[in-house]
Amino acid sequence: MSRVALITGAGSGIGRAMAHRFAAAGASVVACDVNKDAAEETAQAVDGLAVAADISDESSVAALVETVVGAHQRIDVLCNNAGIMDNMALPADMSVEMWHRVLGVNLTGTFLVTHAVLPHMLRQGKGAIVNTASEAGIRGGAAGVAYTASKHGVIGLTRNVAWAYAKQGIRCNAILPGPTMTGIAGSAGAFDATGAGRLGPVIALGELMAQPENMADVAVFLASDEAAFVNGALVPVDGGWAAA
Ligand SMILES: NC(=O)c1ccc[n+]([C@@H]2O[C@H](COP(=O)([O-])OP(=O)(O)OC[C@H]3O[C@@H](n4cnc5c(N)ncnc54)[C@H](O)[C@@H]3O)[C@@H](O)[C@H]2O)c1
Known about the structure:
Elements: E1 4-8, H1 13-24, E2 28-33, H2 36-46, E3 49-52, H3 58-72, E4 77-80, H4 96-124, E5 127-132, H5 145-165, E6 170-177, H6 183-188, H7 200-203, H8 212-223, E7 234-237
Parallel strand pairs: 1-2, 1-4, 2-3, 4-5, 5-6, 6-7
The structure holds nicotinamide-adenine-dinucleotide.
Nicotinamide-adenine-dinucleotide (NAD) binds at residues 8-9, 11-15, 33-35, 38, 54-56, 81-84, 105, 109, 132, 134, 177, 179-180, 182-185.
């Protein structure tokens, strides 16, 4: 029986690369995105199921999980990957509206999907969750205040889930991407293809930007049985930025 992998934010960037890599590893992919057309495009490419859902909305998430379980009866892998940027806004400049929006998607959305999927993994006695955090989850100067706080929160969520369910066969780990060539990067004002912008110091490493597939490969490993004893880990995928 092939594993069922639910990937949020699968319509673009890292999530789309995850969909391709999980499909190549033999998984049945469910591509979830708030952008219906994008989800469908990904699903079509990997012969998977597309589900349009807004992870920040509780009823939308309930419908998402109901659809997946209705189609496949199980969820083996959850990649909580959907996320949005915050225009790199500093604390004094951050609008309260954007704060709520970014926290609502990146942190509450990650919780909502996890919360809805966990009963199925507990019933199965097995499951692997891979959260897409960020370097901004372990440092203060990599993004704006809302994004930074949200990704620190994702790391707390990752560790708590890992601790809570280790004995029930459920593992939860996080990848921490460095600058990666996706839609989010260009829109964020964080950096451009030349490496200019606030994240200039990263460029000192020489390796400018990762490709989405670099993230997807690590996610596939963390979700696999080869990583059976890896739980609660934070895995930087950043060419060495975290080590500097
Ligand atoms: N690209 C980078 O440099 C970088 C670095 C660190 C972390 N990340 C993280 O990687 C993850 C993926 O980002 P990406 O770089 O591929 O960006 P992206 O913008 O290319 O893809 C994000 C996808 O998430 C979807 N999405 C947004 N809000 C959603 C919602 N409420 N419900 C469902 N789907 C939603 C978007 O429609 C989009 O398809 C994010 O969590 C992001 O914070 C990215």
